[in-house]
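Working notes for the structural subgroup meeting. M.R. asked for a predicted model of this chain before we commit to crystallization trials. I am recording the input and output together here so anyone reviewing the notebook later can reproduce the run.

Input as submitted:
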Amino acid sequence: MISKESAEHYNWGEACDGWYLMKREDMLIIHEKMPPNTQEQRHFHAVSRQFFFVLEGVLTMELEGKTHQIAARQGIEIPPAARHQARNDAEVPVEFIVISHPSTRGDRTDLPA
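Returned structure, recorded in token form:
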């Protein structure tokens, strides 16, 4: 059994939080929280396919130049090699689950801002 309260925690980006719900080479599942007006570095994964599922708030996802607003109980797939950036443009935190197959560890290329 795992929960946000018992999972391994880490900080990333601009005061964002992550909790490893499953941390394996063949699959990575993370619960993430982004405070208002934060963003990750635009990047891509050569091999990993990802699925972002929003639990609370609205996640802004820039995917290959197109902006998507993903509300609670909605998700978006990020195929391998797709350039993307998750942002929280709202005034309230956003929480979401990210499923990566296989793990994104060692499979991330950051792009210029």
